[in-house]
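Quick log. Single chain, no ligands specified.
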Amino acid sequence: MATASLIQAGCGFSPRFCSNCSFRAGLFGPSGSSLSSSSCSCSSSSPSHNLNFSSGTTSKWKHQGLRSQAMSTTTQGNFASSNSIANGKNEPDHLLVLVHGILASPSDWTYVEAELKRRLGRSFLIYASSCNTYTKTFTGVDGAGKRLADEVRQVVKKTESLKRISFLAHSLGGLFARYAIAVLYSENDSSGTQSNNVTDCLDGNLQTSSPSRRGTIAGLEPMSFVTLATPHLGVRGRKQLPFLLGVPILEKIAAPIAPFFVGRTGKQLFLADGKPSRPPLLLRMASDCEDGKFLSALGAFRCRIAYANVSYDHMVGWRTSSIRREEELITPPLKSLDGYKHVVDVEYCPPVSSDGPNFPPEAVKAKEAAQNTPNVENTVEYYELMEEEMIQGLQKLGWKKVDVSFHSALWPFFAHNNIHVKNEWLHNAGVGVVAHVADSLKQQESSSSFVSACL
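-> predicted structure:
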């Protein structure tokens, strides 16, 4: 039982929490009392992401996942404050970077920043990024990601007490953060030297050897990577950009006109960037390639959490923000989790082994056809190919997926801004989501402290 407790703590949730879980067949025994290390999506103890679970595992792993309430509203102790005391100084040692979305600014985080400071304690340095404000978000995911990486380096340089780092990003900011962590990522091989084992992004296979969880981000230990309504799979495809209402003709014309409104970022979100022979940026970001070790950097974090709006989000669809296939979307519960209003479901998704992502010859032809003759048939074929490959890449890592539904809110159509309480008065329906995020970060911090104390 001691071993099981240690594994659970390392995964960012306590034995008390596990007792409330509803276990799915294929991961647990009949009693549901035994938890294997491979079943947790947030554990950092596994050296390889190419894990083969049971013979019953398929791409439709939703049905053998774990759904449960996220955590109790009560948290035992304030580990954040105790860490500062343990350091002998009243200085922060955990950097939490807040990254806003498109056409936004650090002021979007006013409520979140204040609430996280109150809940997490003094050991967290909460920093709202300001390098990609407003129209700077139009310059491309790569450009914004590099600026964010430079900004983080400056913060780390000025604060010598920092030891750990986490990211909390909203909407497009989640893609900026994913790019930035690849720029900031350092990995040492067994001999202590920098590893240069990458493949050429121009060939048919984007994947390198299995990404390792060793490594640092900006020289700090990576802890939690949390996204809120982020279009991880882009916005191309049916209802991925909800305000187009799923109308084929609107979705057809959106891709070619997007660059006129949102610049390079629009091309990248619609997977239309680059020559036909080159994989789109978002596909490259689901792998390790010559542009960066995107998957290894993401895998270095102890826990990855994707919050997704089930409905009423006019900017980002449920599928792309939760990294799921269409058939994996099921009707969510109507009732909120206790203590976290509008948070309706949590799913723990273990790593899934695959040989992707790839950019095969048929994808090259489909991209060329989508660019040159953007009819409905061509664009659908291309996006379906890319979506599957991106999912295969990102699912090599474990994820905790949190579904949010504002169906009972006074202003449900503000879901995209409710989820991070952009304005405390107008978007306060999301306060329960922010509380859930805070407790997730705090629980990960406390589990890390517990594991360190036991070693």
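The chain is about 35% helix and 10% strand.
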